[in-house]
Write a structure and sequence with these properties.
Blueprint: H1 2-11, E1 23-24, E2 29-30, E3 34-38, H2 43-48, H3 50-59, E4 64-69, H4 74-79, E5 85-88, E6 109-112, H5 119-125, E7 131-133, H6 154-164, E8 189-192, H7 204-216, E9 221-224, H8 230-239, E10 245-248, H9 254-262, E11 266-270, H10 273-280, E12 285-288, H11 294-297, E13 305-308, H12 324-327, H13 331-340
Parallel strand pairs: 3-4, 3-6, 4-5, 6-7, 8-9, 8-11, 9-10, 11-12, 12-13
Antiparallel strand pairs: 1-2
Helix pairs in contact: 3-6, 7-8, 7-13
Length: about 350
């Protein structure tokens, strides 16, 4: 316990090797100390990291918080209220970026919310931070962080990391303020059939069956997909022709997507970014899980968000075939979850 308190105290005060309000050599002016956070992943990953980002904001209120993440996440990062600036950073396949385009004085604090290391640790160390907050790894023995636990919810994992360093963090602090823009399809049931990997992609014919039944019951339905998923949306729309079916192809930008989700009657999707967006805006949702269980990436407990999952050993979330646990979910299961949902409005 003594070591843990010691690390926490050092994390929350200025570090001797870090930059205070240092001089910007390029402009000859004083700059705020900065916190650099690495989470160069996707939308769902960013939203799962919002509780940790907000904890860092509270712990370092006088600092500029810089998030190293893909450029397309600038809008949701700003919506979190916990990020001042986005430093574009990404790599294929959720890998650690090769480099960060960091300029100016070293960060006062660098925080690894990307992975367990050591590649992400080394990337942040190259910015020469005053302190580096990260999980322990044999490849970086100089980092005295907590141990990584595989069987842990993503939101809780990063909050636990910060708690180890003495920074209070609440995994439930994940709601976003309502979007300013109006919904392009208010009151619709949003159905999002896509996912980044085939392992998490429920078959298109099953989504089509759900969409047809929802339309038959009088619901308005909005189909959404990510970039490159227009053909998938076309197959589902072609099997469920109806005037109350809207297709939002091409991968909606964040602002209209957020407005669509926030104004929806419900969201139906696999375990992907839009499911986290529904949680962030408090929209009722039904999420189809497989191969990763809800205890790792699922919504908060309660009645608003329903997680469908066929129990079994976790599989490969990046597999090239739909996961067997996901295939055990039938259209009737999804429709029952929606019809039984106490907060889904009836058409």
């Amino acid at each position: 316990m003594g070591d843990r308190r010691h690390h926490g105290e050092r994390a929350c005060r200025a570090s001797p090797g870090g930059s205070q309000d240092g001089a910007d050599p390029a402009r000859g002016r004083r700059v705020k100390p900065r916190v650099l956070v690495l989470r160069a992943l996707g939308l769902g990953d960013l939203l799962a990291g919002v509780p940790a980002l907000r904890a860092l904001r509270r712990a370092f209120p006088g600092h500029e918080t810089v998030l190293a993440a893909p450029a397309e996440l600038a809008a949701p990062a700003a919506a979190s209220g916990a990020v001042d600036r986005l430093l574009p950073a990404s790599a294929p396949g959720r890998a650690v970026p090769v480099r960060l385009a960091w300029t100016g004085p070293p960060p006062e604090v660098a925080v690894d919310l990307h992975g367990k290391g050591p590649s992400s640790h080394r990337l942040l160390q190259r910015t020469r931070p005053g302190r580096l907050l990260a999980f322990a790894h044999p490849g970086t023995p100089e980092i005295a962080g907590p141990e990584w636990t595989a069987d842990e919810h993503e939101r809780a994992r990063w909050c636990r990391l910060l708690e180890w360093y003495g920074i209070p963090a609440d995994p439930g602090d994940l709601r976003l303020p309502p979007p300013a823009a109006p919904s392009p399809a208010p009151g619709a049931v949003v159905v999002h059939p896509g996912a980044n990997s085939p392992a998490r992609r429920w078959p298109a014919d099953r989504y089509a069956a759900v969409v047809r039944e929802l339309l038959g019951r009088g619901h308005r339905v909005a189909l959404t997909g990510g970039p490159g998923e227009d053909a998938l949306l076309g197959r589902i729309a072609g099997a469920a022709r109806h005037p109350r079916l809207g297709v939002h192809a091409g991968g909606l930008p964040y602002e209209p997507l957020a407005a669509l989700v926030a104004g929806a009657a419900a969201v139906v999707s696999g375990d992907t970014g839009i499911a986290h967006l529904a949680v962030a805006y408090g929209t009722p949702s039904v999420t189809l899980f497989g191969p990763v269980p809800p205890r790792w990436w699922g919504p908060p407990e309660g009645t608003r968000h329903v997680a469908l999952w066929s129990p079994g050993p976790p599989g490969d979330p990046h597999g090239q075939e739909p996961d067997p646990r996901l295939l055990r979910i039938r259209p009737a299961d999804v429709l029952k979850a929606l019809s039984d949902h106490p907060e889904v409005s009836r058409p």
